[in-house]
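cache lookup: miss for this entity combination. No prior model stored, computing from scratch. Input as submitted by user K.M.:
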Amino acid sequence: MNKVKSFFSYLIRKDVVKTLLTSVACAVVGLLTGYIVLLIVNPGAAGQGFKTLVLGFLDVPNKYGMQAEALAKTFTRTAPLLVSGVAILLAYKAGFFNIGASGQFTMGVFAALYMALVWHAPWYLCMLGAIIFGAAYGAIVGLLKAFLNVNEVISGIMLNWIALYLTSMLIKDSPDMWDSIKFETLSVKRVSPGSVIPSLGLENLFAGYEYITISIFIAIAVAIIFFVILEKTTLGYKMKATGYNKHAAKYAGMKEKMNTVIILALSGALAGLSGALLYLTGIEPWYCPTNVPSMGFDGISAAFLGGLSPIGTIFSSFFITHITIGGSRLDTAYYSPEIAKVVTGVIIYLCAFVLFIKEQLNKRILKSDREKLLRKTLAENGISYTPPPKNSSFAGTREDKPKAGVSDNEKGGES
Amino acid sequence: MGGLLLLIQYTLIFASVLSVVAIGGMFSERSGVINLGLEGCMVMGALAGALVMAFTPSTVPGWIVVILTLLTSILAGMLYSMLLAVAAVQFKADQTITGTAMNILAPALATSVVKAITLNTGDRKATPYLYYVDAHEFFIIRIGTFELNWFILLMFVVVALAFVILYKTRFGLRLMSCGEHPQAAASNGINVIGMRYVGVLISGGLAGLGGIAFINSANSSWPFDSGVVGFGFLALAVMIFGKWKPINIFLGALLFSLFRALGNTYNAFSFLSDLPVNPIIYNMLPYIVCLIILAITSRNSKAPKAEGIPYDKGMR
């Protein structure tokens, strides 16, 4: 029993475990909220609805390969979300909130579709084009921030709308790209099959699902690469240093302005890639929507639910896609698919508390460690220990208070 | 001439939305909390108001419908902004993420609610649209062909009140001190946490009001799956452009609305519609202008010094 307890206390001191616990807690509470919404809308069908929502592809009947197809669809939609999530967390680690990811995504979609439909370029070039366009668009945010002190949240939002209108204008003017009868872009699969991301025979594994490509592997590779960059390289350390303390990073000789531009361009590049990963599979045409695409915002959900780690984001983006697909399968006679979005909304809301929860956890751990040390010292000197009465004025002495969020986190990490 | 009148009309309508919401955002930021969730508060206010407008029996007199709609919208906005207040003020949660979550949640919730309602009425087909054709009329004031609405009058009231409250009352000055240096404010016996709650709630209420103003001036029906098409964010930009001051915000909102209105009315001006450019340019224009203005004015930012930083008693 004691061993289990000490193993648990060892685990709880690990940052990864803390993150995992809080993320799972957020997801569970989010799902419960979804269940409550289902209950309110239609109590009779709530049980079945919740099952559909939570099980996602698993709820699809396992015949004629329908389940495999649903899983393939989940993978295909996870890929762009994962890369978007990495784009968000990369910027966030460096202290920037890249809410302009949606605009960079839009620019990426435009570049990929233009090169595919007009130039019939091979898929990797289309992807490269998307990356470059996204990076350039992200760099605008960075330049505005670094040299003109424009808040990246506001400029990002403005640029989202500009990208939306700009691409609509360019796409609708081009008969090579726009099908003005169906009101959508022409099919990449039909016009330029070479621009579709290859599947390398994956469709044989997934009951011939026609949109499965290697996009999910590309996305996972990107996540792993950025995990390595962030955790193991000087470049990653520099990025994070700017996020920890801008002034200290500057004092240490880092070029703060250049860093800002590079980080936002990198984040933009990933957001652009995310656009290519979705639309070069041919899973859906681009409709030139009237509202900013939600991919950038969904990336925020994925990044925070994933504990701001590229590896965590692999799982969180799969989970979010999973319940989104579950939501789209809800019986529309009772429910609307937006309920899945309610769940993700609640999850991100809860994720905002994560830092607070971790801080509380660290405080607890610190306190119990201290008490243990005190007990030990007293026992060595042959004095019996009596715990201080609760609510005494000594309970909250000054040292108990963290000086700042960052230093407190470090304490937790070391112990 | 008709074109000019139309332009003025649209400008005033957009300005009434933007300045009310931006002033709401100002109250929140002056108290030290960034309310990025203004967009979400607007959606919730719009939803509550639209529900009142759509489902009040037609026997109720018009002025009661108007007052009821406004009050419900304000209340809904305030309630929704409690999400931010509790998270950011009480629990020191990240304000940007909280706001973003509110913006994602609100349209999803609103669409779910509206679809659930439309499913249970009429032809059992879920649509994100709410119709409020009759009640819509109550809000309109006609002077000849010039069409105004009550929200434009409300805008002037809100701007004037905001100016007086912020600069001429003890409450306003205390609120501002919480956004500049909360520890100093606390040492003078001001309840920083309470002040920040009030700041966020005011922003929520005004955003709710702006939300109903927006969907009501736009049309006599509204698809809730498109939220309030980014007006909450525009209001934030207007607030920054207005340097967190009520009068400046009002002027900024007017300027921005003028460009926004051009997108709706360029057809009425022959010299504009004859220009060999794609009309989508006019939709883009307000955002581009806003970005340029921000680029010029952001260098010496007059933002409240403590905005976005959770209040910590022990910090110096």
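stored under new cache key. Residues 63-293 of chain A form one domain.
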